[in-house]
Amino acid sequence: DGGITQSPKYLFRKEGQNVTLSCEQNLNHDAMYWYRQDPGQGLRLIYYSQIVNDFQKGDIAEGYSVSREKKESFPLTVTSAQKNPTAFYLCASSLSSSSYNEQFFGPGTRLTVL
Amino acid sequence: AQKVTQAQTEISVVEKEDVTLDCVYETRDTTYYLFWYKQPPSGELVFLIRRNSFDEQNEISGRYSWNFQKSTSSFNFTITASQVVDSAVYFCALSGGETSGSRLTFGEGTQLTVNP
Q1: Residue scoring higher pLDDT (B10 or B1)
Q2: A/B interface, count of CB pairs below 8 Å
Q3: Residue A89, CB half-sphere, CA atoms under 13 Å: how many?
Q4: Mean pLDDT of A94-110
Q5: Cβ contact A45–B45 (<8 Å)
């Protein structure tokens, strides 16, 4: 089945450690996105990539890094510089970077910093 | 800058009631797209509908209907004869424009609880 997979579903990290969240899609989509969701709030854009080997900062990129070496993969690293990393992280993809295209979402990764 | 406001944080209804979720947006772009997504307890967002800024026709899909009014910058979502399975968080989102492209600006969401 086509879709977006994120792993792991739950992730625990000690303060001061970097951690990488996985996002893979087999929809052959060009564009991919990372969002952060805090309790009772909407989604905020961290990074997005319109095409392989290219990505741009979103609204809250500080303390995060990404790479886009393959079309189907867009991993997100939460670094120790991120001051409040505990949140629900959602990855999404769309056919292209056109504003017309809806985004498809993965099941999310819930990160908890201990 | 784009902005989406969902003033209703939580709504609770009894099964079979009709319920309307409000969405108001702000944008300077002349071409833009509005979306509604559903987030069930599992967490994954599910796409419900897209509407472009040039199409003000209302849309109905089963028990769901959407009312887009450009004059009031609103894109409201109505569920008719609500069911327990409709319980979820619903997000309104906006994309479009020369600078925003496919980037989505989300409202803060409305938590809908349908009680049996």
Answers
A1: B10
A2: 68
A3: 30
A4: 89
A5: no
